[in-house]
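Morning. Coffee machine broken again, so started the prediction first thing and wrote up yesterday's gels while waiting. Chain of 226 residues, entered below exactly as on the submission form.
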Amino acid sequence: MMDQKHLISLKTMGMNTFVKSWTPDGEIRGRILPHEENFHLGLAFEIRNEKNEVTYRPTIHYAYSPSEAACASMEEARNNNFVMQPNLRILGDDITEGRDCLGVLIMGHDFESWWIGSMLDIHETRELVGKGQNATTMQVATGVMGAVAWSVRNPTEGIISCYKIPHHELLSLTKPFLGPWASRAVDWNPLKSIAQEKANLFIPRENYNATEEDKWQFSTFLSHSC
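Came back before lunch.
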């Protein structure tokens, strides 16, 4: 049976579970939306010893901070007991400003934190693919098309996991479509966020007593902000 100690089962809906995180636009309160990749990425980065025992496996979660329009739509659904609205539409050309910081915040090493990823805005997206698209669809579609292009170039590889595709080769195909690219150390962790929150005496926090030993615990990242 597979060891699953890197998994955490939430008792609340992902859209109602908030965590502290950080992007180049600053600290955020993101929603924990379930993704199958969380499980597979943890396995992809695991390290085993000569006895085939797991000695390291990271805990991974997604932190989504949607646009104001998306948050308003989710709040409307929440107030309607999570019944979807009868009329739905996807925002297209009516998006006029903004960017999507899509990346990875790696934590728990000598650098404290490290952020790497794409900071694609709506204007560059329109220059690359024209109207009707946005930065998010571009970032997603680019990864898919990059994998397809790699498959065409390597027709004898057979069926492999997406995590086995050489990332340097994949990035060489996709980075021209991902806008400004950042990779840098970040002086941020959830304990620093908690220290700032303590100034607000009107909001009780269950994790105010977190210590240095608790820095990387999932409970320390949890936020009760809505």
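The first strand starts at residue 18 and ends at 23. Going to sketch it on the whiteboard this afternoon.
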